[in-house]
Design a protein that fits this description.
Blueprint: H1 2-8, E1 10-14, H2 18-30, E2 35-39, H3 42-49, E3 56-59, H4 68-77, E4 86-90, H5 95-102, E5 107-112, H6 117-129
Parallel strand pairs: 1-2, 1-3, 3-4, 4-5
Helix pairs in contact: 3-4
C-alpha cells in the first residue's frame, strides 16, 4: 500500500541551487519517491501550482526572482493548493526565519540543509498517511 502510494505521490522541490536539487532528488528517489518536480524560484513554483497540486512541497527561503516567503504569501493570495503541506528546506538558521515560517499553517516543518535523512522519512510517512 505505501509502495503504491509512493509511485503516485507528487513532490515539488522549490530550490535555486542545481546541486541541492540533484542531491535532494537523489535522496528522495532512494526512499522510493520518483514523482519529483523541481523549479528554481517561487514564481516558477506558483506557475506550477496553477496547473498541478503536489502532495508535498519542499521550499527554500533564499532564492532569486521570488523567495520562499514571497511564494507563501502569493500562494495564499492566489488560493493555490491550499491544503498542501510544506517543509522549509533552507540553509538559513536565523530564528526570525523559523518564527516567520511557523506562522504559515501549511508549513509542517523547518529543516536546515543538508538533509537529515531520518527526519525526511518521518515527514514523508506522516504526510502519506494523512
Amino acid at each position: 500500500m505505501i509502495e503504491q502510494s509512493k509511485n503516485v505521490f507528487k513532490i515539488l522541490l522549490v530550490e535555486d541551487d542545481e546541486v541541492t536539487n540533484f542531491i535532494t532528488t537523489s535522496k528522495l528517489k532512494n526512499l522510493g519517491f520518483n514523482n519529483i518536480e523541481t523549479v528554481l524560484n517561487g514564481k516558477l513554483a506558483l506557475d506550477y501550482l496553477s496547473e498541478n497540486c503536489p502532495n508535498l512541497i519542499f521550499l527554500d527561503i533564499n532564492m532569486p526572482v521570488m523567495d520562499g516567503f514571497e511564494f507563501l504569501e502569493n500562494k495564499i493570495k492566489k488560493n493555490l493548493c491550499i491544503n498542501i503541506p510544506i517543509v522549509i528546506l533552507t540553509s538559513s538558521s536565523r530564528p526570525s526565519d523559523q518564527e516567520l515560517a511557523s506562522k504559515y499553517k501549511n508549513v509542517i516543518d523547518y529543516l536546515e540543509k543538508p538533509l537529515n535523512f531520518d527526519k525526511i522519512q518521518i515527514i514523508l510517512k506522516k504526510v502519506i498517511q494523512v
